Amino acid sequence: MKIIVPMAGRGSRLRPHSLTTPKPLLAVAGSPIVHQLVHEIAKVVAEPITEIGFILGDPAFFDETVENSLKALAIELGAIPHIFRQLEPLGTGHAIMCAAAILEGPAVVAYADTLIRADLSLDPSADAVIWVKQVAQPEAFGVVELNAENRIINLVEKPKDFVSDLAVIGIYYFKEIEILKVALEAVVKENLQPGEEYQINQGILTMMEEGKIFKAGEVNAWMDCGNPEVTLQTNAQMLQLKQEEGEELVDPTAVIENSTIVPPCYIGKGAQILNSTIGPGVSVGAETIIENCELKNVLIQNQSHLTNIKSDKAMIGNHVRYKGNPTFVSLGDYSELQ
């Protein structure tokens, strides 16, 4: 089984945090988004992962450090890593075709901007599976249309009229991904009109027209990391799930003195929690220092220093120095607020 991970976008909705760190590499509940996503897919797909292809953007942003992190992730799972580049933002279908060299055999395509909990069981009668989640406002999402046999017969983007309440989450399985490749080859040969992009749905709809069987798979949990406030919700939800799964969330090298930890919280390597109360829903990155603080629902990256803060909603980057008590904070790397 191969995993294809398109992640060339700049994550503009998550700025300022994504200005210096690609969004999929931002740590949520203790580890980067893309690492958690790939590990979850590898855990629940009952086949060995042989190759992982990461589609990155401009090397000036997705640099050698990013490449090395992703290569190490693949090797950790016993897979061969591949790095591809999408240098123009021409859509999801175009991104997949940037990995054309390895588009063969069974593969999972997973867009690296969400976190999931799922049983990604593969229906042997299906040529492909699209994972979905029931949502309250389907008009805000791309949704699948099912027939009486529960086969997917159409994909509708942000439907004005009700089609279904099963939203596409951005994870797909193809029994033979080369069939999608052939369909997308025809798509990317077409001339784009201004504002248009080459989308994966165009290739999928071609496969449906050719009689390929698409089934829907439902995930147990689907968590977005699109903007700072939503990412805080995802951080809290992931901490709760990890606690229920028995994962150790406090690194043994962390120093906790005269402080109260209200679980679930993640405390990273070498972090210091001094004279503070933190939690629930707090993640503290490696070597970050928290002094005289009361924190709830706060996500802090690495090597920051917070003093005399009382906050129940904040997202804070790396190397931040922060004193003060606004009601909501979203601080990028190397910021100072006193």
Which key terms come to mind for this protein?
2 domains; 28 strands; 31% strand; alpha/beta; 338 residues; UDP N-Acetylglucosamine Acyltransferase, domain 1; Spore Coat Polysaccharide Biosynthesis Protein SpsA, Chain A
Describe the structure.
- This protein has six helices and 28 strands.
- The protein is of the alpha/beta class.
- It folds into two domains: 2-226, Spore Coat Polysaccharide Biosynthesis Protein SpsA, Chain A (Alpha-Beta Complex), CATH 3.90.550; 247-337, UDP N-Acetylglucosamine Acyltransferase, domain 1, CATH 2.160.10.
- The strands form seven sheets. Strands 5-4-1-6-11-8-12 form a seven-stranded mixed beta sheet, with helices on both faces.
- Helix 4 packs across helix 5 (200-209).
- The radius of gyration is 21 Å and the shape is elongated.
CATH superfamily of the largest domain: Spore Coat Polysaccharide Biosynthesis Protein SpsA, Chain A
How many structural domains does the protein architecture include?
A: 2
CATH architecture level-2 label of the largest domain: Alpha-Beta Complex
Largest sheet: number of strands, sense, barrel closure: 7 strands, mixed
Mean pLDDT: 87
Q: Structural class of the secondary elements?
A: alpha/beta
Shape, per Cα inertia axes: elongated
* Gyration radius, rounded: 21 Å
Could you give the order of strands across the largest sheet?
5-4-1-6-11-8-12
Query: Would you count the extended β strands for me?
Result: 28
Query: What's the quaternary structure here?
Result: single chain
Q: Which fold does the CATH topology of the largest domain refer to? A: Spore Coat Polysaccharide Biosynthesis Protein SpsA, Chain A
Q: State the distance separating the first and last CA atoms.
A: 51 Å
Low-pLDDT regions = none
**Relative helix content:** 10-25%
